[in-house]
Amino acid sequence: MKRGFSRSRGGTIRLRLDPVEITVLDDLVQQLSDLVSPSPVDPDADPLAALVGIDAHAEIPVDPALHRLLPDAYKDDEAASADFRRFTERSLREGKAERAATVKAGLVTLAASDGQAEFTREDSQAWLGSLNDLRLVLASRLAVDDDEGEWRRRIEGDPEAEQGAVIYDWLTWLQDALVNALMK
Questions:
Q1: End-to-end Cα separation, the chain, in angstroms
Q2: If we measure between CA atoms, which residue out of 88, 178, 98, 96 comes closest to residue 134?
Q3: What one-character-per-residue DSSP string does 49-74 give?
Q4: Where are the beta strands (DSSP E) in the chain?
Q5: Half-sphere CA count of 115, side-chain side, radius 13 A
Q6: For residue 54, is it within any domain?
Q7: Residue 156 located in a structural domain
Q8: Alpha carbon 143 to its chain's center
Q9: Torsion of CA 38, 39, 40, 46, to 10 degrees
Q10: CA dihedral 142, 146, 149, 150 (to 10 degrees)
């Protein structure tokens, strides 16, 4: 079986990674989980608001990468964006953290089974979401824009950024392989 995602004849999604790839992806997914995990619910919060996930203290993220994952809903209306964020951000963060946890569990399975595992369609969707989130975070950190040649020229000579670009390309390849496997 080749590396990356593939689809079996029976229709299951398979993944094969080498140990270094598992370690790198595990670290990235842990960082993603740390970035998106919501803060604990305020014990003094309105119980009904807490029950339905309304976060009275939701604010526009200062971190550009987190802001890219949780953008404003209305670019021209700050009040509407603030209301939308208050009603949705906690559940969005929880969903992203749950997908990351699914990927972490899959990585444990991969590590325990010689770098090979099969995933359900639901788990594959979690992988797809987390891979996309990881690419968005890295794109923000690397200042990736529509002009691929330009952002790559900007990072030349910066070993850390060049390493980030290699990881970005690898995540892109992995995500593409998963999309292709899901479409077959």
A1: 17
A2: 96
A3: HHHHT--TT----SSHHHHHHS--S-
A4: 4-7, 13-16, 116-119
A5: 13
A6: no
A7: yes
A8: 17
A9: -90
A10: -60
Number of structural domains in the chain = 1
Residues near 77 by beta carbon (within 8 Å), at least 6 away in sequence: none
Q: What is the pLDDT of residues 41-66, one digit of tens each?
A: 666 666 655 555 667 677 889 999 99
**Within a domain: residue 65?**
no
- What pLDDT was estimated at residue 181? 96
Domain that holds residue 170: 4-40+93-183
Q: Which residues of the chain have pLDDT under 50?
A: none
| Tokens linked to 179 | 């999309």
- The C-alpha atoms of residue 58 and residue 56 are separated, in whole angstroms, by 6
Q: Report pTM.
A: 0.90
| Residues 6 or more apart in contact with residue 167 via CB below 8 angstroms | 24, 28, 138
Residue with the two structure tokens 């980030």: 164
In a domain, 55, yes or no: no
Q: Which amino acid is residue 38, in one-letter code?
A: P
Report the amino acid identity of residue 33.
Answer: S
Phi, psi of 15 (to 5 degrees): -135, 135
Q: Which residue has the tokens 């975070």?
A: 137
- The side-by-side arrangement of strands in the sheet containing 13-16 is 4-7, 13-16, 116-119
